[in-house]
Each structure stands twice: as C-alpha cells, then as structure tokens.
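Help wanted!
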Amino acid sequence: MGLNAGIISTGHSYPSGVLTNADLEKIVDTSDEWITSRTGIKQRRKAGSDEYTSQFAVKAARQALERAQIDASEVNLIVCATTSPDQILPSTGCLIQAELGANNAAAYDLFAACSGFLYGLTTVESMIRTGQIKYALVIGAEVLTKYVDYTDRSTCVIFGDGAGAALLAPVAADKGILATKIVSDGRFAEQLYSPGGGTRMGTTHETIDSGQHFFKMKGNELFKIAVRSMTSISQEILEKANYTTDDIKLFIPHQANQRITDAVAQKLGVNESVVYSNIEFHGNTSSASIPIALDECIQQGKIVEGDLILMASFGGGATWGATLVRF
Ligand code: UT7
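Answered by r_m:
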C-alpha cells in the first residue's frame, strides 16, 4: 500500500495590534452594527509599521516544527502562499527559509490569494505521495492591512493580518489528504485586484497618489461566486472520495464573511455545530485564514486522530479549492 501526504503538525501567529470595529468607526464612515451584521467581524489583527509578512510566517512555521520535533534542516520544501509578500524579490519563501535555517529546502511563493493555502496543499501533496520529498512546510501568511485603503469602507473593514503553517509528511494511505482540487477563473480578475505597482502599471507618483496599489473589490459580485464555487467544489471532492457531509467532523471554510460561511454550510447540508468560524476575531486573513483556523481547532482539541476534515476556499483570481483530510 502506498503513502499519502498528511498534515502532521501546525502552528500560527499574528500581530499583537488589534483594530476593532469601534476603531474603524473613527476613521471611515461605517458602524459596528453594519460590520457585524454584514460580515460577522468584530476585530482584526493589524501589523505595526515595522512588522512584515515573513515574521509571522516564521513564528507559525517554528511552532509547527517544534510540535512535530522536526529540525528545520530536515525540511525539503517551503511553499509560502501570500498576496502580501515582504518584497517582490526575493520570494518570502526564501526569506522564511533563511530565518528558519532550513538549508536543505527549496522555497518559493505561491500567488493564489485567499485560496493559497489549499493550492499549496494540493501541489505539495503529490510530491510527497510520489516520494519526491519527505517534509514540506505549507504556509499562508499575510500583512494585507498594508494593501488596504483606509478611506475605502468596502475593503478596509474586512482584512486582517496573520500566518498559519502546516508541516506535511508521508502517512499511511488511509490517512492524510484523501482528495483535493483547485480551480481558477481569470475572467473574474477585476473583481478583486490591485492594479498598480506591477509591469502593467508601473509605480509612479501618480499611481501612488491615486491609490492604485491598494486592493479594489467588487464584494457583492464575489459573494455569489464564492458561495457557488465553494459549495460545488466541496460536493465534488466528497463525492470523489466516497464520503458525505455526515462523515465530516469539522468543516473549515476560508473566513471571508460569516454570511458566506453560513450560506455554503446550508447548501452543503452541513450541521452548524461542525462549522468552524473565527472571523469575529481575525477578519479575513486571506491565505492565512484556513491554516490559522486549522491550528486553532487542533490546539483546542476539536480535531483528534481519525477525524475527517473538509476545508474549502475562495479568493481573488478568482481561485477556489477544497481539500479533504483524515487526521
Ligand atoms: O476573501 C475572498 C474574496 N472576498 C470575498 O469573498 C468578499 C465577499 N463579499 C463580502 O464579504 C461582502 O460583499 C462585503 C462585506 C464586502 C460587502 O457587503 P454587502 O452586503 O455585499 O454590501 P454591498 O457592497 O452590497 O453594499 C451595500 C451597502 C452600500 O450602500 P448603498 O449603496 O446601499 O447605500 C454600501 O455603500 O452598504 C454600504 N457599505 C457600507 N456601509 C457601512 C459598504 N461597506 C460598508 C461599510 N459600512 N463598511
């Protein structure tokens, strides 16, 4: 019998700075009532001006390695899913590698917005299953608040900062990642994008003055696509692996909006009691949202050996994915 890729350990980290809805009321035309009822968010973590993405990624990765008692030198691959890298060059993955002392690893960044963590699991899974590598760190890390326009109430109330890491290794074939799928549709590119700063619209004083480097989002349109795609891809991989929602111990969706989570859970027929949500405390941390939630669940004892966990994501691109894991 062959081997599967399993998540053998996790960790997470976030800034100490907290931005509450009351804080936002003072800087933009919004209210705690609107944010709470439309998104479920009460607060989000916000990095200080001297904090950056790889710092949180390194803390999360160290936690995962220490919990598994694996030395950084044993790691073969580091995949950092991020939409808010420390800098364009080198990759945040390489900066994490150097900081960890993971000198035997290849490292790179993966750009798939909020779906980055599941994209990372999906790409690494086959490399472990086919024996190309043994230990891989898949990290979702973001300091999105530095890409947010705090005069734009439709985006600034949503995003938060943090990082989550998972250490993957070969496990028995009846455990680990049982099914996983990722999908993209670039026709939705302008539903969530940051137009300035790349080769298409290089950075100039004008692009900065007009805020072209900030995230712009058509949230209302994305909402419907998110519900539809997360539901269908979850159904697809459950069916592929011959399971139903009754078999799931926990459903961990990307924490984009509590109303999206509720709608997907309802369409999937998943009982409210098995749906994990932390959006109230973290907001939307993009690629970090699922690994942070996963680690919280493990540390709180919500996941024990043998449990079947479904994760589903949706993000800019548009990108979406779902992964079914037996712990
Ligand atoms: O992370 C993955 C990718 N992102 C997503 O999946 C995001 C999905 N979308 C969402 O979460 C929601 O669409 C939002 C939370 C972004 C917005 O909620 P909504 O219920 O879709 O609001 P809306 O954009 O339809 O706007 C409704 C009203 C508008 O006012 P009018 O035109 O009806 O007078 C907005 O101007 O709410 C207004 N509004 C706000 N009011 C107070 C928008 N943002 C705010 C705000 N505070 N922060």
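OP: Thanks! One thing I noticed: The mean pLDDT is 97.
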